[in-house]
Amino acid sequence: MSRQMKKNLVAYSFILPNFLGFAVFTLGPVIFALILGFLEWDGNNPMVFVGLSNFKELFADSRFKIALWNTITYVIGTVPLTLVSALALAVVLNQKVKGRNFFRTVSFFPYVASLVAVAAVWNMIFNPANGPINMLLYKLGVSADHLPGWAADKHWAMITVILFSVWKNMGYYMVIYLAGLQGISGELYEAAGLDGANAWQKFKNITWPMLSPTTFFVIIMLTINSFKVYDQMYMITQGGPGTSTLVLVYHIYNVAFKNWDLGYASAISMVLFLLVLIVTIVQFKGEKKFVNY
Amino acid sequence: MRNKKFYALVLATTMVVASLAGCGSSKESTATTDTKESTTNESSETTDQASTSTDEEVTLTWALWDLEQTTYYQPLIDAYETANPNVKIKTLDLGSTDYMTVLATQLTGGDSTIDVATIKDIPGYATLVNKNQLEPLNDFITQNGIDTKAYSGITDQITIDNNLYALPFRSDFWVVYYNKALFDAAGVDYPTNDMTFAQYDELARKVSNDKAGTEKVYGAHYHTWRSAVQLFGILDGKNTIVDGAYDFLKPYYEMVLNEQKDGICQDYAALKTASLHYSAAFYQNQVAMMNMGTWFIPTLIKAIESGESQATEWGIVKYPHADGVEPGSTLATITSLAVSKASENKEAALDFVKFVTGEEGAAIIANTGTFPAIMTDQVINTISSIEGYPADDTSKVALHTANTYLEMPVHEKSSEIETILNDAHDNIMTGNITIEDGIKEMNEQVSAVLGK
Prior knowledge:
- Chain A contains 13 helices and two strands; from the N terminus they run H-E-E-H-H-H-H-H-H-H-H-H-H-H-H.
- Chain A has helices spanning 3-36, 53-60, 62-94, 100-112, 115-125, 132-139, 157-182, 186-194, 199-210, 212-227, 231-236, 248-257, 262-290; strands spanning 39-40, 48-49.
- A two-stranded antiparallel sheet of chain A has the order 1-2.
- By secondary structure, chain B is α/β, with parallel strands linked by helices.
- Chain B: Residues 1-21 form the signal peptide.
């Protein structure tokens, strides 16, 4: 055995445990789901090969179209909002402000807290009839007829869930940004200060470019996580009112575990997979232009 | 440079794949365990033949929900274990939220530990039968001389392709609960056992008031379930909920939406976002009438005893009826027991099912204030004479039904239809779409499902 080969074997043996887990719990199921997309199967009776009919069914399925559209709306609403709020929080809490540790903890708290509990609280706060938010809006002069119905109104339900997600997740991305910020050398700011740069110029020409790898990571993770959103909808709106917050994963869950149409559910998840893959590839392509070093 | 591109692509793919693992993995596990199940199926057949002697020690697992809150499980188990000392009944509480989904998932996972499964609703039942996971009971029924006539027609409603896959042990039906104190305070006569929908609506409006806060009285209360409003429409026996045409629902939606607009009942959207339980709504002493199933009777009695309910004087009347229809036509919800096909103790499991769904079981269930599926005058007397049940005659007469209709009839597509109807109900009740548009949505989408 050559030296190189031995070296490689050692390396593979380190990778193996992780890869085994990946193969058994991720790769295998994904390949199986891909195959299932061409079958009709309810989990118990024999599988029947149906060719492309599951994929053809997608075009006639009005709920799928609604879910697809809702998912895209959610991604477009959540990603930029979370990014901006996380960055703003990180920049502010990176300064030497009084009690910054306290505020960092406060911002991170929603991410740690149990989704079930905070969703229940969120529903109380945003209760259209007697929640504090609407009471406040009413006090501020919004007439009773124009108060938003939040989770109970089909026009506001998605916004409510998006706001919830932003609030819940921005703490996590703030921590990632804080790490990025602390990696920026103070000398750059000193030099810029000597050249007479103001705060905005420092941010625009130092912070933002130096953070670009972090931003890239945050965008990718946020996008992928937003495409597979499910739990928020389940807790806050159950996909409602009507179908106004029905997202793809929720639809997959209903088709798979309520109707037991596992083949069709797999076909939908393949569409979701392709969608996320395409978006992610586009983002990686954009990386070169965007990430500055 | 090329390499970097390649790695980026691989990285992107892995990230995406990992992100989808949640959807895929559960399916994989069902696949692997499926083979396991088919082997247990075979082995169960062999054990079936082996365990003809009844003296063997057997432990049966009974899948159910809300073990703590339900009063009849333990008495049933105790009685059966006393009569059959060689059998131990183990309970498996799967929780009431999504019970049928969890049960179906468990059974799909090849869980041969579940012997007896409680069937909570019809769509879930139809799904399990389609999935071929319940033991057909026809042979057993004939062999044991079980008289399905005792169930007064309920078993016909859950027969699929001439076969029964479950036997009912509870049969609840919907009635109108009313709060006597609120009627007294408003100086309005109590509701009666013979109300048309128009009279019911009028009464709800009369007993309501315009006060604010805790003084406010709502004439009626509709829980956020589809059944609470939509199914008024099927009580004349002319329509069913699985036909694909829903225009007959219009007058009932109009009645309830108008009540909602006029503050006669609480706002659906608010109830939904607050996830207010119907029992809590009634306990608050602000709801004069509430349509709900008879399963609420033992719960309400218990809540009054413990002081949880502020509403203490109550009565029951029959469901309101459409013009020209016999009073006492109402909705029925049945709860039944089935034996899992994967069970390794089918014989013992069937015997337990026979006990619970039979007359002995019915007597035990009735003693807890719950309606068994075998309904006799004796049972009605037992329930209406338990402590805490209202003493007036009207409340006793209210327990005699005329025609009962299942909340959801057995249908191959019932679970898909249910989802569509729920969404439309939600949309109509929150005022997101008009009644006409909601009905149109139901007509179109259900027809599409039926035509598939």
